[in-house]
Amino acid sequence: MTGERLRIERMSVRFGGVAAVRELSLSIAPGEIRGLIGPNGAGKTTVINAITGEVPMTQGRVLLDGDVVSGLPAHVVSRRGIGRTFQHVEPFGELSVLDNVLLGVGRHAPVPLFHAAFATPLARRGEASAVREALGLLERFDLVPYRDTPAAELPFGVLKRMDLARALAARPTILLMDEPTSGMSESEADRAVAAARALAESQNVTLLVIEHNMRVMMRLAHSVTVMQNGAVIAEGAPSVIQRDPAVIEAYLGEEAADAVR
Amino acid sequence: MNVSLILQLAIAGVSVGSIYALVALAIVLPFKASGVLNFGQGEIVTLGAYAALVLTQLGLPYPLLVAGVVVLGGIGGIVIERLLIRPIVKAPEFTLVIATFAIGLLIKGIISLRFGDSPNTIDGPFGSDPLVAWGLRFNPTSLWIFACTALVTVLVIAFFRHTRLGKAMRAVSIDADAARLMGIRVEKVYRWSWAMSTAIGALAGLLVAPLIGINPEIGQLILRGLLGAVLGGFTSIPGAIVGGLTVGLIETYSGVLVGSTFKNLVPFLLLMTLLVFRPQGLFGLAEIKRV
Amino acid sequence: MRAEASRATLLSLIGVAALAAGGAFLGSYAVYLASLAMINVISAVGLNLLTGNSGQISLCHSSFMAIGAYASTLLTVNFGVPFWLAIPLGGAVAVAIGALLGAPASRLQGIYLALATLGFLQIVQIVIEELASVTGGVRGLIVPKPAFAGARVSEYGRYLIVLGACALAVWSARNLMRSRVGRELDAVRLSRPAAQALGVAVGRVKLTAFALSAAYAGVAGGLLAIVVGFIDPVEFGVSAALRQITFIVVGGMGSVAGSVVGAAVLSALPEALRPVKEYSDLIYTLILLGFLIFLPRGLVTLWHAGARRSRARTFAAAGEGTP
C-alpha cells in the first residue's frame, strides 16, 4: 500500500441500467504520469467523475495515499488533494481569467466572512498574497495578457491553459486531466505536453491523463491504461500498449465502424 | 366525530378540491409542453370570474356563459403566449418565473382599476338550496363544479390519447427538438397548450365565483393549485387532478383538526416538506433536479 | 490603479457627506422619501447577493424585512431595548431564520426554489396575522419613536442613521464581492462542477448567501419601522417581494452598483408618478416586464457597453501595478 498515490479498487458505476464502468482497478505511484485511453464511450470521463465524487460509484473504493476518499462530497475530495481539469473547461464565464485562477488559489487560505465584509488588514493581506500567487501562475501559463478578460470571450486553447492554471492553483497532489490537448494545434499540444511533464516532475504532482491524441500520449505518459466498454483491457508502457492486439482491435473497431457510417 | 360529519367534510373537501384540481391542471399543461410554470395562473382564474361577471351582466344564458368564458380564456392565453412568453421562452428560469408572476400582477392590476376592489357575485346555475340525500347535504354548485372537473379531466385525457394535437403535445413534452425534427410545429403546440391552460383556468374562475364571490384576490388560489401540482408530481395530468383534490380534502379536514387559527399554515408546511423531502410528489418521476 | 481606487473612495466619502449635509436643508417629506430610498438600497443589496450573485431565486426577501421589523420593534416595545441595539438584534433574528430556511432551500433549484420561497412568504404572512396579540395582526404595529440618551431622535437624525447604515451596507457588500466570498458566490452560479473541483463547498456557500441576504433585509426592515413609525404587514407581501426583485433586475443583477442604481431610481418613481397614482403599481410591473424582455442584465450594462473588460474583482488588485 505504501508508495501508491491513487488506488482504485473494483470501481463500478451504473447509470440506470447501463454500466459505464465495470470493476475497474488501477493504481498509480507518486510522481507517475498515467495515461487513460480508449475508444469513445469507454467510460474514461466517468472514471474521473467518480474519483472526484461528482458521480456516485455503485461499488468500489478510491484511496488517496492510503486514505479512503470514495463517498466523500466532491469539494472535500478536492480539498484532500485531488484536482481535475475538464474536457470542456467549465469556465466561470463572467469572471476574468485572474478571478478564475484566484478561485483555485484562495482555497488554502479562506477569509472569514466578517473580515471580508469589512476589509480588515487580515483580509487585505490574504487577498494580496492570493493575487500574487495567482499572477505568478498567469505568468507561468502565458495568460497575463488575458488577466482581465472575461473567460467567456477567450479562444478555446487559452481556456485550456486557464483551466490547468486554475486546477494547479489549488495545489493538488494528483491532477486528473480530461483531454487536455483537445482543440489545440499540434504545436500548442507539444508545448502543453512539455509543460505538463515539467510540472509533474518539478512539483511532484501525479497525473492521470485522458487523451485521444496518441502522439501526445506516447510522449507524455510513463504508463498507459486502456479501457473499453467500462473495463480495463490492457495496461503497460506506451510502446508495449501500441502493439497490443486487443488495443489495436478496440481502436480499429472504432475506426472501421466510423468508416462504415 | 361521527361518520356523517367525516363524509360531509369529504364532500366539502372534494368540491373545493375540484377547483384546485382545475388550477393544478392548468398549471401542469404548459409546464409539460414548454417547461414554463405560469406563476400568474391565479390571475387567469380571476380573469375568468370577472369575464363571467361581465357576460352575466350582458344577460347571457348559462351555457353561452360557459362557452364565452372558455373561449375568452383561450384567446387570452394565445395573446399572452404570443406577446409575452414567446420573447422569453429561451431565457433563464429566473426570468420566466418573475415574468409570469409579473404578468399575473399586471392582470390583477388592470382588473382592480376597471372594477375596483369591492366584491361582486354571480349565482350558480342550479341555485343554492342544498340537496339532501343519504342524510348528507350537497350544495348543488359544488356538485356542478365536481361534475365539470370530472368532465374536463376526461376530455383532456382523451385529447392527449386520441387527437393528433394531443399526441404532438406529448411528443414535445418529452423532447422538443426531436419533435421538431419529426415535423411537429412546436410553436403551435406551445400556443395551444397555453390556450388550453388559460381556458381551464378561466373556467375554474367561472365555477368558483358563486362559491366565494368575485374579487381581485381570487388569484390566491394559485397557491393551493401549485401545491396540488407538486403533490401530483409536476408533470402528471392525473396527478394534478388527484393532487388538487387531496389538497382540498387536507384543507377541509385540517380546519376541523387544527382549528381555524393555524389551519392556513397546513398547506404551506406541507408544500415545504414536500419540496424538501419528496419534490416529485406522489406520482412524479424520481429524478427531479436536486442540487 | 491605486490612484483610481483612492479617487473612487474619495468620491464616495464626498457623496456621503453631501447627502448628510444636504439632508439638513431638505423639507420633511423629501427627507422621508430619501430615507425610504436608502432603505430600499440596503434591501436590494442583500437580495442581489442571493439572486444576482449566487443565482438563487427568492420570492420571500420581503419576509426577512418583516422579521427584522417586527423583531426589533417587539424588543423595544416589550423589553425596552433601544433602537440602536434592537435593529441589529432584529437583523440577527432574520439571519438565524434565513439560515434555517436556507438549509433546505439551498438544495433546491429553479421553480422548486421559487415555490419554496413563495411558501415561506405565505407562512410568515400567516404567522404575523395569526399571532395578532403579539404582532398586532392585520392592523399593524405602532413603532415607538427612537430615543437616544433620553432625547427623541429627530427626523433628520433618523435620516442620518439610515444614511450611515446604507453606506455601511453598500461598502460591506462591495468588499464581499471583491473577496473570495464574493467570487465563491458567483462561482456556484456559473459552474457548480468547476466550483466543487476547486474545493468550494457549494451547499455551504448557498446557505451563507441566504443568511447574508436576510441580514441586509432584516436591518432594512428594522430601519423601515423607525422611519415610518408603523409596521403594516401588507408592506411585506408578494407585491413587495416583486418590487425588491424589480430593483435588482432594473439596476443589474450580480452588481452592487446595480442594486444601488435600481433601488434609487425606482424609489423615486412613485413620487414622479404621483399624478397618476392609481397606475403606479401597473407601471412598476410594466417596467419589470420591459426590462426582463429587453434589458435583462439591467441598467449597469449600459455603463459597460463600451468597456468589455471586467476588472478582476479583488480589493488587493487595486494596489497592483497595471500590466
Can you tell me about this structure?
The complex is a heterotrimer of chains A (261), B (291) and C (323). The termini of chain A are far apart. In chain A, the strands form two sheets. In chain A, strands 6-7-8-3-9-10 form a six-stranded mixed beta sheet, sandwiched between helices. Chain A has a four-stranded antiparallel beta sheet with strand order 2-1-4-5, covered by helices on one side. Chain A has 261 residues and is an alpha/beta fold. The mean pLDDT of chain A is 88. Helix content of chain A is 43%, strand content 23%. Chain A has two domains: 188 residues, P-loop containing nucleotide triphosphate hydrolases (Rossmann fold); 61 residues, no CATH class. In chain A, strand 9 and strand 10 form a beta hairpin. The C terminus of chain B is likely disordered. Chain B is globular. Chain B has a two-stranded antiparallel sheet. Chain B is mainly α. Helix content of chain B is 72%, strand content 2%. Chain B starts with a helix and ends in a 14-residue tail after the last helix. Chain B is built from eleven helices and two strands; from the N terminus they run H-H-H-H-E-E-H-H-H-H-H-H-H. In chain B, a hairpin with a 2-residue loop joins strand 1 and strand 2. Chain B has a single domain, classed as ABC transporter involved in vitamin B12 uptake, BtuC (Orthogonal Bundle), CATH 1.10.3470. Chain C has 323 residues and is mainly alpha-helical. In chain C, the strands form two sheets. Chain C has a two-stranded antiparallel sheet with strand order 1-4. In chain C, helix 2 crosses helix 8, helix 3 packs antiparallel against helix 4 and helix 8 packs across helix 10. The N and C termini of chain C lie close together (10 Å). Chains in contact: A-C, B-C. Chains B and C meet through helix 4, helix 9 and helix 11 of B and helix 5, helix 10, helix 11 and helix 13 of C.
